[in-house]
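Re: that chain you flagged

S.,

Sorry for the slow reply, it's been a week of failed gels. I finally had a moment to sit down with the sequence you sent. For the record, here it is as I used it:
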Amino acid sequence: MTEFIPGVGAGSLLRSELLVDGRSTRIGAIHQLDYGQAVVLTHDRWKFDAGGLPQFSFLLATAQDVNDPHVDDDEVLLLRVEGTAPLSLERDLHAVREESLRTALSNNQDPAPSVVLDADLDPFTKNRVSFTGVRCKILGTFYEDDVDGEKVLEFGADVDNFYATSTYRVLKPIGDGLATIASYLKPTGRPVERVRIGAVRYSATRRRAKTSKQADAAVEVNIRDFIGNKTALLGMTRMGKSNTAKIIIARTFVVSERQRAAGGHPIGQLIFDPQGEYANPNTQDGTEIAAIGADHVRIFMFGADGTQSHVKPLNINFFSENQIDAVQGLISDTLSGDEAGYVKDFAGTSYANVPGDRSATTHAERARLVLYGALKRAGFTAPANFRAKINISVAFQQKIAAGIARNPFRQSGSAPNFASIAAGDIEDVVDKIVELCDAGDNDATNFTKDIRWKSVEPIFTTRSGNRSVRGYRNLGPLRPFHSPATQNDPAVEIYEELVQGRIVIVDLHVGAEAVTKALSESITRRLLSKQTEVFTSGEEPPHIQVMLEEAHNLFSSDRYKDALDVWVKLAKEASKLNLGMTYATQEVSGVAHQVKANTANWVVAHLNNTTEVRELAKFYDFGAFSDAIISSEDRGYVRLKTLSSPYIVPVQIDRYDVALVNEARAAAGDPALPPNGTAS
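Prediction finished late last night. Pasting the structure tokens below so you have them in one place:
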């Protein structure tokens, strides 16, 4: 049997994976070669037979010497087509073509274009002018290596030697050979779990690829590249970013369930969903992340009434003792525009009970009392039958009751000083306490001496020292956050769901922007706090993935200067806290350079202006694709660079559909959905 390529090791991995018939087809030869660039000599007929040669095609160059089988050529160069290149005799060939046209024009009475331009060339001349040069970038070298006694395919991102150009044959990878190249993963020592994400797509025009059956060479990625790392989804609106995100989310869920089944820790996923496209089906996908199942997906949204166990209210109860941290955070953000010192005092003081410390708990209860008064004054509705607990001496109770001409206190503990006050009486009680304190009453002075009370009182009275402040008058925009029926802080509940390995969708498509923004920050702040708490205790924080839209609003260069900003903290501390982050934006330049510099995975769809493409060109060799990124507006057509892939691959991302939902459900042991994507 004749060697397929003499000089290349017979039966080698290079041959079986890349070079055999059905995995590659001859396209030409090397015309010029150096360490970074190559010019390939090809012919019109060879390009036609190979199914075309679009820009950005991968090509393979391999040396051969039929007279010396021992030549050191067990390497294959990987090339990428970038454009055309002039050949040495091309000017002469153009002159031949021009002369043939002049002759046709002189020899015919009819000077019409069809007569002159379509004149037949003699076969010899026609073949000579059919040669073209293709300019290619050398991406690196495939070679074989022994790892633990097993042959593996290795890739180096450069060239360690080259021969005279006449010794190289050039082939176009197709079918499984192309899939091998597009799905190649660098050995990293990390776990590998290959999943399909799409098919190789070189160009917007795909007619030749489809007719030659070269349009479905699979692109596989290591889904673990996305877990615990930063991933950028870049492109204009409606270019398929959310579809790609859904694929990553569903594939990550499969990994999580397999880890759970093997006795390992599951992976939680937190999705901030400003358009409601992850929680609800849409015309683009026909299904949604929530279709994975109510046991595995939790949706938090405004207006949830509790009739569905997996759909929970996003609102918080501002009068709930166990939600005081969230309340404090929201109020602090809202009051931050007021430059008075009381705002800083309020933000830096805790109003939660302290188990085992009766004194601290007493002062926290008193501070919450004045806060509840401020909320009532700002128009917040207290829960039905709400009563604020308070530790107050009987003598002071009697003094207040006399001042407001009724007794608002009811004993609520084992001793008379443990009392409670109904919501309707709170404002009057706090007003009387402030009045008595201003008058120098000793009981009132002692009652209000703690920093907790003093940091809240200006919100109720709208006085801070000798100056007027807006206080409770600034709290009106927070009313949409409030629900008297909410039992627990959603941020706490969300974190608990994430630790259990569930997908949590925070549906923000209903609600004012200012409200959803503040709530997202509250949830993220809780996430960072809990992960940091675990990390500093010497334990391994649970793995959690966070999905963010409109990242240019969260990670701008100006904002990145603020080390206390919750999104900046997330970007900076995510890795050590086992927080993976997927961020989507159409404004590459709007994301701080530090975030992009630490991004492991890049999915780049259509961008519509040179400013964004120039910024993108600073990373890897995306600059080579600049014109195509601007001109190609096909949904799901991306340039993909992952942590384990050594080069950029042009990909048509698969559609997120019921089949992928069912794969996720199967990993969790749940039955498949019917083709319409809804449970029967």
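What I noticed first: The chain has a mean pLDDT of 85.

Talk soon,
D.
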